[in-house]
Design a protein that fits this description.
heterodimer, A: alpha+beta, 5 domains, four-stranded antiparallel β-sheet, 16 strands, B: alpha/beta, six-stranded mixed β-sheet, two-stranded antiparallel sheet, 8 strands
Chain lengths: 687, 220
């Protein structure tokens, strides 16, 4: 029995290879989409995490002296933890704010420490010169070098709170996050000697000792479990400290990747081409590498998550088989008599409106309930986000069930417009859509999914961006912020700066905010502030404008990766619509031939196909954009990405709707050309 | 081959399989273009027409009735009947439409879809579709091939009636001698050539002529 069924299937495949090829293509694209989304998502995660994490991945555990009871002697502490069994290396992370003189302006700079070599060094390769090799050498931060003009070979003096000035030589320029404050890096001993504070001790583990064990041993040795964390815990805390929105985005990206897999499973309809999925992953990876090659300069390395991709493959295969069950059951329910009836009518006829609406209403209610639960009941933002995603999937299910009914409504609204615009072919397209609602609904669900995910993403991106910009403005209300030891000193310093016509100045507490006056270049204003600050006791300059620019670059890159995801979605939409239309037209070659025979021109046939695509596109775009903008907002809400109301990017959403209609019509080009080539004599042939 | 089909008459084209019946009809109906020779509809040379001209000609001057009915499943009977007019953007003559629907007896089936109609009813809807535009010629390709005997006779009577009473020109391709006997003339083809004709045909005379042409006895 199974053998003969397989034989019939094979014969059918041989007779109509195009159909199998098209279905295979749909699966391929869906898999590429899932794999690509995962890749881009992981890349975005790595990129953002990299910006926020300070502690190197090589640190298995860290000690935070500020959490130790009493005030332990830092040098003794370092010796104590280094002696713990399993600790391969211990590096103190010191920081100081010495007054820098001799070159550039004389003011407080940040001085950080680094072991300069070994696994616990946090420095990347120098961009210029070399790393310091003796305690009287320092490296200078990239932005600092650009602002101050310091280059390898320059000699500067560092003076701590007390003691004699120390003359050091600059040996190189290194990439550190020094956009806001001028920064130098020296050996720990140098920093300690200038009155630096020990902020953290990074610990590398001996081979075979895992992070948790090491942290446990160190905690036991110090008798202070609160002061010891594993490296992983510390890095997570650093991400959380830098910005809540980064954590939110990371959760959102993870959920989005999960949704992509679900989306792929939906698009994968009814075939068994496992081989193609493997090809798809390779294609997807190549495609992304290409994308990266043409991208902006700052695009980070792609992160390939092997378990993730394996998961995509497994889900694609599973989903293919599961998705095939429904059509198979439907096919087995067709009575033999019906099979002998007129061909091509299988998708037509009145949809079972009542039953569909009931099921859809139940699903919609469940989706609403989940959304409510996510907003009100969830313990953590992560859980809430997962619940929102689940609610979105159920809502999509409701849409699929209600699809044929919805198509009726859509045609009732859009049909007259399309008939008026498209004449005869437009009327036919509207009739086709209305009378074969299931076929139309299939096209629309594929598109809606794409549009939906894109619009949710757009809302997410724009809200995150708005939130980040708001917090930047709050953090850096002026181009230059000067921190001073007390409000009195700040008021005095503000008075000095205010005398300079090149600056607009105000003081608030112990900070002074300075902006360039109208028409004054940033550099001139900066130099003016630096000159005044030189020699002013305890003045720490913060280059807020630079920090802001850097944050914006980071944000822009993250957004570019986000748009990469949008692009993937668009690709899926094009292929999805193209394949659905192509399959639909293959099914109704005879209908097309008949229309040609009774007087529809080639152009007319093509226009009809294009109008059908436009109709599907309009429906999908409208529904997808509205529903999923709501989910985008929900996502932003539950992740608490933004304090105020979420930003709804109306312009972008409008462009998306218009873009989807265009994309749908573009996707119809090939099917339309093919349909136009159908010979009218095909109408005379037996089915 | 050289063949003239007179207007206002019911002409049947017959011949064994592979005799060129279908090809001939495709050429005459402007469904296909000839590699050599000419096909004229009235004064129009079909072989010189572009695809668009042929499309317009099929739309405005020719009607079709197919063996497989070829109604669009997504349209009602009424919408199927009016399809060519809608494609052409023509106004439908309501009196003529009512007359046709009355003559074909499909008045109570207009809002049904093809799947809800019997074969005979579907084919009568197809005939209404073909006649609504008052075409110069209606081509019928094995119109009774999918019908039972009673429905077939009913349909052939309707076709003959439209020739007699309305002056319609009909060209019918068939391999059924009984169907051919409803025509005014029968043209016999063999190997792409006109091999004979049967004026005032009856089933037995058609069968005899067909047997002679085929060189073998043909069962009915």
């Amino acid at each position: 029995m199974a053998g003969s069924v397989a034989a019939v299937l094979l014969a059918e495949t041989r007779r109509k290879p195009g159909r199998v090829l098209l279905t295979g293509l749909a699966i391929t694209v869906a898999t590429v989409f899932a794999a690509g989304t995962l890749l881009l998502g992981e890349t975005l995660r790595a990129y953002l995490a990299d910006r926020a994490e300070q502690t190197p991945a090589t640190a298995a555990a860290v000690v935070r002296p500020s959490d130790l009871p009493g005030e332990p002697d830092p040098v003794a502490l370092l010796g104590e933890v280094a002696a713990v069994d399993g600790v391969a290396d211990a590096a103190g992370v010191w920081s100081a704010f010495p007054t820098v003189g001799g070159a550039g302006a004389g003011a407080l700079w940040a001085l950080g420490s680094d072991p300069m070599a070994g696994p616990l060094s946090r420095l990347a390769a120098p961009m210029q010169g070399r790393l310091p090799s003796t305690p009287d050498e320092v490296a200078v931060g990239e932005s600092t070098a650009a602002r101050s003009g310091l280059a390898p070979g320059a000699a500067i003096t560092l003076r701590g709170d007390e003691g004699v000035p120390l003359t050091v030589t600059v040996t190189g320029v290194v990439p550190v996050s020094d956009a806001a404050v001028n920064t130098l890096v020296a050996f720990p001993v140098t920093v300690a000697g200038l009155g630096g504070l020990l902020g953290q001790v990074d610990l590398a583990a001996d081979p075979g000792v895992d992070a948790a064990t090491l942290a446990g041993r160190v905690a036991a040795a110090l008798g202070a479990p609160d002061a010891v964390r594993t490296g992983e815990q510390q890095r997570a805390a650093e991400i959380a400290e830098v910005s809540e929105s980064v954590t939110g985005v990371l959760v959102a990206v993870g959920v989005f990747a999960g949704l992509a897999v679900v989306a792929a499973a939906v698009v994968v309809a009814s075939t068994f081409r496992i081989v193609l999925t493997a090809v798809a992953v390779i294609t997807g990876y190549g495609l992304l590498a290409l994308l990266r090659g043409t991208g902006t300069a700052d695009v980070p390395d792609l992160v390939l998550s092997v378990p993730g991709l394996a998961g995509v493959l497994a889900v694609a295969v599973l989903a293919t088989v599961l998705a095939a069950i429904a059509p198979a059951m439907a096919a087995s329910r067709i009575p033999p008599v019906a099979a002998l009836g007129s061909a091509g009518a299988a998708d037509s006829g009145a949809p079972r409106t009542g039953r569909r609406l009931v099921v859809a209403a139940v699903a919609a209610a469940i989706a609403g309930g989940l959304a409510w639960a996510a907003l009100n009941g969830a313990e953590s933002p992560e859980l809430a986000m997962v619940i929102v995603a689940a609610s979105g999937i159920v809502a999509f299910g409701a849409l699929v069930v209600a699809g044929p009914v919805f198509v009726r409504g859509l045609v009732a609204i859009a049909g007259p417009v399309i008939s008026a615009m498209g004449g005869g072919p437009g009327r036919l397209a509207a009739a086709n859509a209305a009378q074969v609602p299931r076929r139309t609904a299939a096209t629309i669900s594929v598109l809606t999914l794409g549009v939906g995910m894109t619009s949710a993403l757009l809302v997410g991106i724009s809200s995150t961006r708005a939130g980040a910009e708001r917090s930047i403005s709050e953090q850096f209300p002026a181009k230059i912020v000067v921190g001073l030891p007390d409000p009195g000193s700040a008021a005095e310093f503000a008075a000095v700066l205010a005398a300079d016509p090149r600056l607009t100045v105000h003081a608030d507490g112990s900070a002074v905010f300075a902006d360039p006056a109208q028409g004054v270049p940033d550099v001139v204003a900066r130099t003016a502030v630096e000159e005044s600050a030189a020699g002013w006791p305890g003045a720490l300059l913060q280059y807020a404008g630079d920090a802001r620019a850097q944050l914006e670059t980071t944000l822009g890159t993250a957004q570019a990766i986000g748009f990469g995801l949008v692009g993937m979605t668009a690709l899926v939409a094009v292929v999805g619509v193209g394949v659905t239309l192509m399959l639909s037209l293959t099914e109704r070659t005879r209908e097309t031939a008949l229309m040609r025979a009774v007087g529809l021109s080639r152009t007319g046939v093509r226009a009809m196909v294009a109008w059908e695509a436009a109709l599907s596109g309009t429906g999908a775009a409208a529904v997808g954009a509205v529903i999923d903008a709501v989910y985008g907002i929900l996502g932003v809400r539950v992740l608490e990405l933004v304090p105020g109301a979420p930003a709804i990017p109306f312009a972008a959403l409008g462009a998306l709707v218009a873009g989807v209609v265009v994309v749908a019509v573009l996707a119809a080009v090939l099917p339309a050309l093919r349909a136009g080539r159908v010979s009218p004599t095909r109408a005379l042939q037996e089915a | 081959m050289d063949l003239a089909i007179p207007g206002g008459r019911f002409t049947a084209i017959m011949g064994p399989s592979g005799s060129g019946k279908s090809t001939l009809m495709h050429l005459l109906a402007g469904l296909d273009t000839a590699t050599s020779g000419r096909a004229l509809l009235g004064d129009t040379d079909l072989t010189a027409c572009s695809d668009t001209q042929l499309t317009n000609l099929r739309r405005d001057r020719i009607g079709f009735v197919f063996q497989a009915f070829n109604l669009l499943p997504q349209l009602t009977a009424e919408q199927n009947i009016e399809l060519p007019a809608r494609l052409a953007g023509r106004r439908v003559d309501p009196g003529w439409r009512a007359a046709l629907i009355g003559m074909l007896g499909i008045g109570d089936r207009l809002h049904h879809r093809p799947t809800q109609l019997s074969g005979g009813q579907q084919q009568r809807v197809a005939v209404a579709r073909a006649l609504l535009g008052r075409p110069e010629v209606v081509f019928a390709d094995e119109p009774t091939g999918n019908l039972d005997t009673a429905s077939a006779h009913e349909l052939l009577n309707l076709l003959r009636g439209s020739v007699r009473e309305l002056g319609q020109t009909i060209v019918m391709v068939t391999h059924d001698p009984v169907a051919a006997s409803f025509a005014d003339d029968v043209v016999l083809l063999r190997d792409g050539r006109v091999a004979g004709s049967v004026p005032d045909p009856r089933p037995d005379t058609v069968l005899a002529a067909l047997s002679a042409v085929s060189g073998a006895r043909v069962g009915v």
